[in-house]
Structure formats: C-alpha cells, structure tokens
C-alpha cells in the first residue's frame, strides 16, 4: 500500500520503515507483546466505565504530550487499579514525539508516577506524506517560535533532519535564508557532531559522513522571508481542497452536503498513489475540468473495448486490466465529485470578491473592471444617495432616509442583511451589467498585488466587516494590503482596528497585537527609517531575539515588495497570447494566476542560478541616481556580481554594518573556499544577487570535507560545472514555519520544465493556508461570565 513512497527521487519508504522498526523495538520491551499483536485497542476517554480487560497484563498509552491527555491517563489508572486490586498490571507511556516537562511534573503531582512502570519517547517527527514530501504536520510551528518563544518544534524538526541524514546520507551543502533557518542549519551541524561523537565507541554504527549521500544540497527557508504567500488564496486543485476542507497527513475529510456532522464526513486519501489526483493536484483549477473530461473519455473507451473483444488473447489482456479500470473509475467519481463541490466554492461571490481584491490576473479583465467602474461613475447607487431602489416592476423594495455610512453599526448590519437578499437582475443599469447587489460595488479595480490603491481603505474589507464575515477572511485581506503597501498609514490602520473591534468585539485585541508584533499588520511610519536596512544580520537567539528577527525580516520584505522585489524578481507575470510551452515564467505564474511566490524565486536562484532579465537595467538605474555612497556601492556590487551580504549596508548613523556582521561574512567566505577546494560549485553570481536582494540573513555550510558517493561522480575540479549524469540532481528544500500546497506545486512545475534535470524533496514543519496561518496567530480573549451579587 505504501509502495508509492519509493517512486520519488528518494525511497521515503526507508524513512517510514525506520520509524516502524524503532516503534516495534520499544514494544518488545513490554511483557507479552504477542509478536506485536494487540489484544484490545481503544481511544482514551474520560468515560467512567472505561477499564482494561481482566486478562491484560500491560497497558500501553501512546499519546501526544499535553496536560489533558495526561489527566485522562491519571483518571484511567485510578479507576483501573481500584477495579483490579488483586491483579498486578504494568502501565507504560509512549509519548510522541516527546514527553514534556510539564507532563512529567503533572504525573508527580497526581502521584501517578509510582504506578507508571516506564515512560518512553518515540521521536516520530518527519512523516513521509507523499513520495516527495516529508512533514511534521505542525501548522502552529511559526507561531510557536516567533511569538510564543517555544523552540520545541524547531528541536524536533532538526531531530527529523538528523534521522533523514542517517538514512539518505549527509547533505553535502547547507544553504539557509532567514534567521530561524540559519539557526536550524547551525543546530543541525552541531547535533550531527554530537551524534557522531556518541557513536565513536560503537563500531556497529557507521558515521554519517560515511553513508552514501543521495542528495546534492539542502535549502532551508524561514517562513518570515515570504509571509505573503500563505496569506494568498490558493488556486491549484490540491490547494483549494486544503482551503475548503483541510488536508492533514495526506488525508482530507469531505463533509456531506446536507450535514456537517463528523460521522458523515468521507475520508479521502490524497497522495501520489492515485494517478488521477497526481495529474490534477498541481494544476490551476481552471484546467481541472478538461483533465477530468479527458480521463473520463479514456476510461469510457476502455469500457467499450471490453464489450467488443472476442478473441481469447485480447480477452485475457482486458481481464488483466479490469482491476486498474475499476480503480480508475472509482478515482474519477471521487475527484469529479470533489471538483463539483470546489466549483461551487470557487465561484461564490465571497471567494471571487476576495480574489479580485488580492489580484487581477488578465489585463482584459482589468479593462473590463475599469469599464464597469467608469460606467458606474454616472450611476447613482441608491444606498449612497438617499434614494429609492426602483425595480422593473415599479415597486419600492427598500427606503433608506440617510447615508448608511453615518448610521449606527446595528442599523448598518441590519441593512446589509436585507440588501444581500436583493438581486439586481430586477434592476437596470446602463450597458446591461447585472450584479448581485451589495452596499459596495461588485467589482473592484484596486488589487493589492499590483499596488492599486493599497494606501486607502478598501471597500471590500469594509463590506466584510459590515456583514461580520469570518474574522480570518477580514484579517487575511488586511494583512495582504499591509504587506503589499509596506505597512499601512497610521490613520488607516487605526480605522481598520477600530472598525474591527467595534463589530467583532474587544476579544480580538491580542490578535491584532500579535499581527503587529510579527510584522503582518503594522504602521508604515514605524518602519520608515529602516527602509535601507533590509539585510541586517539578526540571528535568532535562544530566547528574546527570535521575535525581533522575525518581525525585522517580515517588515523588510514588505517595505521592499512594491519598490524593488516585485520588479527585480519578476513576481507578477503579465499574460501573453503566445502558447510557448518553454516559457518558464508563464508556467510558474499559472499556479497563482499571475503571481510567482518569493520563496519559489529563491529556490529557483539557489538551484538553477536563475536571474531575471531586468537586472542589467536595474543596476544601470542605480548608477545614475547620484553621488550617494550607499547607492554607488550597491550599483558597483550589482554590476560586478559581488555579494551584497554586508559591505554595502549602513545603519541610521551612516556606519557600515560590515563590522557587525563580519563574523557571518567571514564564515560564508571560508565555507565557500572549502566548497571550491572540494570541487563543489558555490552560489553563482546570479544566485548571489537574487538571494542578497531579498531581506534575510544568508548562511552557507559545508558538511562533507571530501566529496563522496554519487556527488563524487558528479563533480570535477574546482570552479567547473557538474558533469552531466543520467540520474537527476536531488535537492532537498526545507521550510521552517510551514509551506502551502501551491508552493509545492510551483516547485514541482519548476523541476519539470527546467533543463537542469533536477528533482525536489520537500521537508516542512507543516502545511498552511490563510485560515490556518492566521488562526495560529490569533489569540482571542475568553470573556469571563460574572455572577451577579
């Protein structure tokens, strides 16, 4: 069943087997394992009648470490020991992936530690969820290390990377971008040295550097380097499934159309073993219908063939194809049903309006929106002009005597509820544009990614607040606007916060504060003085500096997004009429309908040495800006291809940051010289330009002092390019803080269309979408019900 794990660049089934063997080894320690058979299995609940069977000699609790679960264990052991007084049973705890200090203290306080025979930790950290994806499935990791200052997830992530290296060999090169990514890289090297020191006395275990390396490089990206992408609505098939139902451990649960009950959810496995899903998942949803139609015709042709075959050899061949045909038909039925539900979800007014506020893909669509906007200028909207709505039948539906924007929130919300039921199909507008009526016009010309009117209050955000849309939807648009605009003006930010708190309540004050602390919703004036300090090397310390480093990186990327990153990295790709299948930018832009994520550009530069066509023009413009020392150094570095890591930055007082980050620069230079001396090609000038143009500290590490294994067959002498080989170059890409399914689709597309013959392995702390990302950063205050005297 898990054979599909071996169909990728690496046999991730070996990783699964290593976890399985370790778990079974731990079970062998307990009495009467019955060859790993289980006599009884049940969920641990707080039910009063839950007890172990009388003939059971050992009870093993496999738990996730939290206080509520440990409290359930305490209640169960207390009941069980009272009921089975004469029998002596052993109680064991297996904590996945670790047993926290708080849980240990809780057991001691409840005086249960004497009843528990043993407590084991099973480090199940990185799980293979597909043939090229390994995940911790911890979507709150970014919040834990950036806001809560909890580093346990990072430690477990590094533990998983160590196990990965123990199976597939060392990553010859480590390249990390962002403060937390640099911390992960350094921790990985340090823990690897500690593990090798511990194994020196054990001759049965080979050191990690003697294991044949099956990868060529590890790229580690901090989520802070690109916080915009998780906020955007995903448009791929798999991404939309995650947006609507969520995907966890490669499984989604589809709710029945008539009920939202958990017991009526249909469990669907989504991975590479399903050929139909493997073809659909990385496609923009606009292409899903044609693919399903093509697949359906192929299956129909096979069914027709089975009915017309008469010869015995042909009949035998058809019979052998029947199992595959049945599975193909079942998969088609499932994904056709999913596509129908997604179609209803995508083409709702809420989704389309939110998407139009985020981005407008085609210039033709923009012109159409502008045409409607121009046409509306001469049309008086009744809700804004104290007039009556006159439908075609001549009957007045609503009468507003005053401007609703000046009325109380209660009246405005009541009006919104009434208005939402009115369709303008009964009303006439010039040129016959029919729209669902809302207090705000249906189409909005301004979209955030293109930078249209991002410094003003967006009408759709105001409408969402008025109709009390889910707060995650409102925060999503507010954060996107803030990010794309380099922060919001103080007056606009205060207006948004005031409107939101008045409608949704004071309970969300901490949520707004968290978004400000992380840099997703901030005052642009507080960042005005640090516009050129985008590459300040702020490394994430154990405690205290992590939040500052995350906010600094997020705000630096935000301030540069509209001024330089969007153009220099070609993040927005205009549509073209040509059908060139070799146009890499157009193919990548299809994932987000015109937008290429910053994270994808960074991986593209680090793995392929990609450089946009606008670099030469950008450097020339910098040279002609004036006698500024900073700009002269910048232009010189751009034209000569030198690194922009530290030498061109100045602080507020005009002093260079070279002295402050000299240790980091020397470290990078020394590692680069080691790489060259070992025959490994360091970052090209193209990659160096792109990586250093994007805010966030850069770190490079060499793990192999000598090149061995498959990498040794690849490389020649110093400074030369790799020798072509039949086997693809395998690059592991690790995302600290989470990744979206659309980013995975974009990088898969990049590997498929590039000429470099490379494949990616994705390692992440968890999968994100806008809802889960903002939910992890939310901190709603729970009101306390006070009893009257």
Features of this protein?
28 helices, Syntaxin Binding Protein 1, Chain A, domain 2, globular, 3-stranded parallel sheet, 7-stranded mixed sheet, Sec1-like, Sec1-like_dom2, alpha/beta, Rossmann fold, Serine Threonine Protein Phosphatase 5, Tetratricopeptide repeat
Structure at a glance:
The protein contains 28 helices and twelve strands.
Write the layout of secondary structure elements.
Layout: H1 13-27, E1 58-64, H2 67-83, E2 90-96, H3 101-109, E3 116-121, E4 127-130, E5 133-135, H4 141-146, H5 152-168, E6 173-177, H6 179-198, E7 217-222, H7 237-244, E8 251-254, E9 266-269, H8 275-280, H9 288-308, H10 312-346, H11 349-358, H12 363-377, H13 382-385, H14 409-419, H15 459-466, H16 471-484, H17 490-504, H18 509-518, H19 545-568, H20 584-589, H21 598-608, H22 615-623, H23 629-640, H24 662-677, H25 685-693, E10 698-702, H26 709-714, E11 729-736, H27 741-753, E12 758-764, H28 770-777
Parallel strand pairs: 1-2, 2-3, 5-12, 6-7, 7-11, 11-12
Antiparallel strand pairs: 4-5, 6-10, 8-9
Helix pairs in contact: 2-3, 5-6, 7-10, 9-10, 16-28, 21-25, 21-27, 22-23
InterPro entries: Sec-1-like_dom1, Sec1-like, Sec1-like_dom2, Sec1-like_sf, VPS33_dom3b
Pfam families: Sec1
Family: Belongs to the STXBP/unc-18/SEC1 family.
């Amino acid at each position: 069943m898990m054979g599909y794990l071996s169909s990728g660049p690496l046999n991730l089934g070996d990783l699964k087997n290593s976890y399985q063997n370790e778990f079974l080894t731990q079970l062998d320690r307990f009495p009467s394992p019955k060859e790993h058979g289980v006599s009884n299995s049940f969920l641990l609940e707080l039910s009063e009648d839950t007890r172990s069977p009388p003939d059971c000699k050992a009870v093993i609790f496999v738990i996730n470490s939290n206080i509520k679960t440990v409290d359930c264990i305490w209640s169960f052991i207390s009941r069980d020991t009272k009921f089975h007084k004469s029998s002596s049973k052993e109680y064991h705890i297996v904590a996945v992936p670790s047993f926290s200090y708080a849980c240990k203290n809780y057991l001691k306080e409840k005086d249960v530690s004497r009843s528990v025979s043993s407590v084991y930790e099973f480090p199940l950290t990185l799980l293979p969820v597909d043939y090229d994806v390994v995940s911790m499935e911890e979507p709150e990791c970014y919040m834990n290390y950036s806001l809560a200052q909890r580093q346990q997830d990072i430690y477990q992530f590094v533990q998983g990377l160590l196990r990965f290296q123990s199976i597939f060999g060392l990553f010859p090169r480590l390249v990390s971008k962002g403060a937390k990514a640099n911390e992960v890289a350094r921790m990985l090297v340090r823990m690897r040295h500690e593990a090798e020191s511990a194994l020196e006395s054990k001759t049965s275990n080979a050191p990690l550097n003697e294991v044949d390396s099956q990868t060529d490089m590890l790229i580690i990206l901090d989520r802070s380097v690109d916080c915009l992408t998780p906020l955007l609505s995903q448009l791929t098939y798999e991404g939309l499934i995650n947006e609507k139902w969520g995907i966890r451990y490669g499984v989604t649960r589809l709710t029945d159309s008539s009920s939202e009950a958990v017991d009526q959810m249909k469990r669907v496995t989504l991975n590479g073993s399903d050929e139909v899903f493997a073809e659909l998942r990385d496609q923009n949803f606009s292409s899903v219908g044609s693919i399903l139609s093509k697949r359906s015709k192929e299956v129909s042709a096979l069914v027709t063939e089975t009915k017309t075959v008469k010869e015995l050899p042909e009949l035998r061949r058809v019979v052998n194809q029947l199992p595959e045909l049945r599975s193909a038909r079942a998969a088609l039925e499932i994904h056709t049903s999913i596509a129908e539900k997604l179609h209803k979800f995508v083409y709702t007014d809420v989704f389309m309006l939110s998407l139009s506020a985020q981005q407008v893909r085609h210039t033709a669509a923009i012109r159409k929106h502008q045409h409607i906007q121009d046409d509306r200028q001469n049309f008086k909207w009744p809700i804004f002009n104290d007039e009556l709505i006159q439908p075609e039948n001549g009957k007045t539906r609503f009468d507003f005597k005053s401007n609703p924007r000046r009325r109380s929130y209660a009246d405005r919300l009541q009006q919104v509820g009434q208005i939402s039921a009115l369709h303008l199909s009964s009303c006439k507008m010039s040129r016959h544009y029919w729209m669902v009526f809302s207090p705000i016009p249906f189409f909005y010309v301004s979209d955030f990614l293109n930078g249209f009117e991002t410094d003003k209050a967006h009408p759709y955000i105001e409408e969402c607040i008025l109709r009390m849309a889910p707060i995650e939807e409102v925060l999503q648009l507010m954060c996107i606007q803030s990010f794309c605009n380099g922060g919001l003006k103080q007056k606009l930010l205060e207006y948004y916060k005031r409107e939101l708190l008045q409608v949704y309540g004071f309970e969300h004050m901490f949520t707004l504060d968290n978004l400000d602390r992380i840099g997703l919703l901030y005052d642009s004036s507080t960042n005005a003085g640090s516009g050129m300090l985008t590459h300040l090397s702020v490394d994430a310390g154990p405690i205290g500096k992590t939040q500052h480093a995350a906010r600094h990186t997020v705000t630096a990327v935000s301030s540069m997004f509209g001024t330089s990153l969007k153009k220099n990295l070609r993040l927005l790709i205009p549509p073209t009429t040509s059908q060139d299948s070799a146009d890499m930018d157009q193919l990548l832009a299809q994932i987000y309908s015109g937008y290429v994520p910053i994270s994808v550009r960074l991986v593209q530069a680090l793995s392929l040495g990609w450089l946009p066509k606008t670099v030469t023009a950008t450097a020339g413009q910098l040279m002609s800006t004036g006698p500024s020392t900073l700009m002269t150094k910048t232009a010189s570095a751009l034209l000569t291809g030198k690194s922009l890591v530290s030498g061109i930055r100045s602080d507020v007082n005009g002093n260079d940051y070279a002295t402050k980050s000299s240790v980091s620069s020397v470290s990078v230079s020394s590692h680069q010289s080691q790489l060259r001396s070992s025959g490994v090609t360091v970052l090209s000038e193209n990659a160096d330009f792109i990586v250093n143009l994007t805010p966030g500290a850069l770190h490079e590490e060499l793990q192999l002092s000598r090149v061995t294994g498959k990498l040794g067959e690849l490389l020649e002498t110093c400074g030369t390019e790799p020798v072509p080989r039949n086997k693809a170059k395998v690059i592991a890409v690790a995302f600290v803080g989470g990744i979206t399914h659309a980013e995975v689709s974009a990088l898969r597309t990049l590997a498929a269309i590039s000429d470099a013959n490379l494949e990616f392995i994705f390692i992440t702390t968890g999968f994100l979408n806008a809802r889960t990302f903002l939910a992890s950063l939310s901190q709603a205050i729970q009101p306390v019900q006070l009893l009257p005297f």
